[in-house]
Structures
1.
Amino acid sequence: MTHRTQDIGFEHSKISRLLSEESGNILLPDFLLNLSSESMRTLSGGFFEPREVTTVEAELEDAVEEEPRLNLANTTIIGEPEPIVNVVGNCPVVAVDVSSVRVGESEQGLLYALRGALVWREGLSYNFTRCGPLAFHLNDLIARSLNRRSRANDNLSYSAWSPLSERLLSRLRNTLERWMQRLACSRLSRGIVLLDGSLTAGTPDNPTVYLEDILNRSRENGNAVIAFSKETKLCFSGKKITRLLDKANYPCMLNIDRIITPQFPSAPVRLMGRVYVAKLTSRGLPFRVDIDRQLSEESAAKAVGRLINSDIVEQGYPETLRLAHILSTFTANEILAIQRHLSIDYGLKLAPRLSFRRSLFGPYGTSREAS
Amino acid sequence: MKKGLIVQVIDIQFANLPGILEDILRDVMTEDTIQGCDYDPFNISSQIAVLKDTKILICKIRGAIENGKAKTETSWLPSRTTSRIVPYSIEKLASTRNGKRPVTLGRTRSDNLTVDVKMLDGKLNIITGKKGVGKSHLSKLLILSLIQNGAPCLVIDINGEYVNIGRARNDEPTPYADKITVLKPGQSLKFGLSEVGLKTFLNTMIYALDLPRTSSKVFSRIWNELERSGNLKLNSLNDAIRRFSCHESVREAIYSRFNTLMDLELFTDDISERFDFGLFEKKMNAGHAFIINMKDEHALSRRLVVELFISKLTEQLSEMRLKAVFLFAEEAHFYLRETYWEDIITRMRHLGVFTTFVTNQPDTVQESVYRQADNIFMFNFTNEHDLDAVSKVAKIDAESLRSIVKDLPPHNCLIVGDIVRDFPIVVNVKPLDVQTMGQTRHFFQD
């Protein structure tokens, strides 16, 4: 037991060292840094229409949809949820989250910013390392660069108003997110790595190869990867699967993997995690939870038991992951700051937006709005 | 600059940017629970810090510059797209230093503010602010500036704060020491009945001591009889009241009030003890300050002395024996009867009594005084009730006044009016090398 405590102490200091001393060099891949700089250089003092931000705007994060909606037939037999057993002993917990936000539009393309946060619990305190914001001008240069790097042979060609901008953003975001997740899984041992979203991969913008690598490294270091989805599109009998735990008033998890897996053929989309619906506290909210499929069901249950003993779980959501989300997301004020950075460092001029409504119907107003 | 709009910053606030509250809440929520570092390769966070601290300047239009000259009225607006914003020296706007009687009141944010004392001549002034912010200090500065320029001042000193303005902090007499006379009622200030006159004496009996109208008529007859016989003395008046043929209740009413007045020891039959109004005239016309020290005086004594002096001043001014008087009235509600307020700002002003009211209770000064005041020196007020009272001044809008006055530090005052050419100016009043007697007495000395 003494030996185990010392071991954990070592792991804590190791991850602290990783995340504080070396963070600058390793948290952000050079490729992304260079891509950000190069793409921004293509702006060269043109006009820029900033995104308007208001105090009433509730959600600034630009969610990237990855998974299709999936309705499970109600003929499927669903088992009973299993209680989560608290596993005595703390282990290190690390959470990773990355956010993206649109900051405006240039004449050639859209401007986005990315930021990632890595939070870990050490003893009773929480620590973080955050990287970014990185600004990107989504244009052909980025599309070509990403194509060159992509292991999935998918040729993207970009045009400013194309829906492909969503895919470019998704790729950029996944690149940073997977990089940071890989880092966490490589440097931590015998701990829990919490991810935002699911452990689904296999789309051109989210290739399986990266997630596979992350999970392999994690297993090699004795970690358990658990992913929490705030939103899920998996439905059962027309209702979200999280409703399956409506009647459960104790910490529990329900394995729904066997009814979901058959819905996904072997390729291209792969569920690399075993899918559960879990309620981590008796009065908490239920979430879709994906746990590394290569771990046995027993190990997965133990990992969740260790998690609720090692982290604060408010409203059924781990605090480490909540903090990672808070630290990575952008506020309206930060968007304004990024816009200011763009106008100062890249000489962008704010372009008034053409308002068709005012142009057509406004008796006195001009056709352009102040931004 | 040939043409421009003059705006004054009346308040500085943090800009209410979108999401700022969310930012602050996030910082507060995480600052105690989480520590860490940011890797921000393009230093965008510095822009976030700049934005968080972005301030907005709330301004009011005060006038315009046309052909290089500042004026308080304006009827045009500059372009909002091509105009430039430049700081403009307050001194250039408000200073009247080119006048013949310059006096430096203190420092503005950028420079000394020098004004012409002449701007107090013929004016009604108010110095107000809460306790301990420097009202009396400014009042002393104005008095010294006036006597330095040969002006006559009469100071009604309710707390004995002005008695040593003729002495420097090192107790040496200042160059103006011989131009300052301190009077203490009952000691260096005593009056003879004939100098006071029936009207003043009777007014005091009526207004200060509530003598009934019928009794006042009887008293007038007694007074007139003694005056006709050339025997208007204290003892004679006392005897006459006791012997006069009238109803017992009338006699009792007059006698009790007469005795009350006598107890104040303000009257004397001894000519050598009497205050010499002739000498008073002479000194005042040569530039002098008479300070009536009312500290520890009975309320009746205060009212009587003020009634008497105002009555005498009116007489001397009417007969052109005095050119004018700058009257400094501290906490005037303690001694000024209601009917005098209107009189001071109308009739007496025309005669040459130019009053400066000094008070920390602005609601005790009548609203008409605020409306007609030519110069207002306002120190800090934080109480809403006080701000309501002072915001009645006509020379500045209530919003500017409230915004500026609430944030004034001690010894800083907002000056509005003719003395600053109607441009509201905040001044840090300059220190004076005179002894201050207005400080609160303390039990604990360490």
Note: The interface with chain A takes residues 16-23, 26, 29-30, 33-42, 44-45, 47-48, 50-52 of chain B (CB under 8 Å).
2.
Amino acid sequence: MVNLPANSLDDYRRDALLSHGELWLRYFELGGMSTALEVEAFLYEALTPSPHDRDLIAHALNERFVELGGNHPVPYADDDD
Amino acid sequence: MTADVRLAGIGMAARFEGDQAFLDVRGEADARSVPLLSALFDAVIASGCPSVILDLTEVDSMDAAGLAVTTSAAAALVASGGHLTIRSLSSEVERALDLAGLSGLISLELPTVPPKPAQGDLRVPGLVSPTSPTSSDPGSRTRAISAIPANEDVVDGALRLVVALARATVGGADGASVTLRRHGRLTTVAASDQTVLDMDAEQYATEEGPCVDATVAGRWFHAESLNEETRWPAFTPKARTLGINAILSSPLLARDQPVGALNIYSRTSRAFAGKAQELAAVFAAEASNVLTLAGTDVTEDQLSGRVQGALRTREIIAEAQGIIMEREDIGDKEAFDVMRRSSRSSSRPLRETARDVVNSTHHTSRDAESGTGENHG
């Protein structure tokens, strides 16, 4: 995204070229327990995920960015910055 | 092309006047129209247009996804020093915007008469049918985008919109198109002009070029300057004959599978710098969303295979998690974090880290049991 001060999880999802469904599947694959609807609500910041859920989503996105030739741009809960 | 534009019951149009962008939505802002609305917002925000007027006077209701997109666009505009104004007549839309806490971010106008676009506003310089002559109007101060033919199907209409937006807003773009693999063959489903159609056709004929490669490999191909290009020896001379010197092809993905490409062409070498590439990525993401929602060419078999694969991977990760919990005497979340950190530092998918953990235990137990062929559940 352009001109945005901070990326929301949904911005990262768009940049990662993932649909909501595909991101949820990748989250589920990593062991996530929340429903697709809940994950969508986390992305739109309508619900706040637990730190572990947030890390699962962050990691699903980061693995996708690695596939696209990038690094791990989405921060984790235990990242300091 | 008339001003009364419909997309399967939803009409959507955008026009730029000076530093104002007007987005008109008709019908219901629901699941089908939301990706388009999102694409329109992204386009105007990315193009740096500070003032956006969203005309919802002909919209009766807006669902949660529509609200989410509008909220996020309003926040992005405010963050970049811009502003969103919403025109609405519907008390239901008004109430929904209130409930979403949008009143602090936007201006709400309640016009007594629905504003009509001025005559000629909905001409589409970036969008012509394959048979009509190219109309280029670089001197015009009013840029109009959009317009979706009433009788076309939703996906092609949406992709035409994306092409028109890309053509109008990506700096250096002289033309744009969308290639899709349909019924095993590459087809151009939207093109800004005849030259672009010819460019795509040459790539299909020679079976090479950035658009073919992006569709097959599912990643970006950027030909900065065709004068120096060596990757496509059969196609490149034909492109140069058509006057094209730079090409940016971004992959389109439906449910994560490559299904096509968004191609942006320029007569100028090295036309596509950082900002143009960012915009192209935005449009490719939007087109991918549209294709994913439409389920383009992803069969039920492919989907069910994907779900089964995810289930197997989930089991392996859970098994590895259990092994680490036992080995290091830690909880499940901490065990996951161990694998996550290892995956991050090695840039390998977590499932591979998990597989290594599971395999190492198998080897250890095999060693311990001197190869008696134990069976792991």
Note: Chain A touches chain B at residues 1-5, 8, 10, 14-15, 17-19, 21-22, 25-26, 28-31, 44, 46, 52, 55-56, 59, 62-63, 66, 68-69, 71-72, 76, 78 (CB under 8 Å).
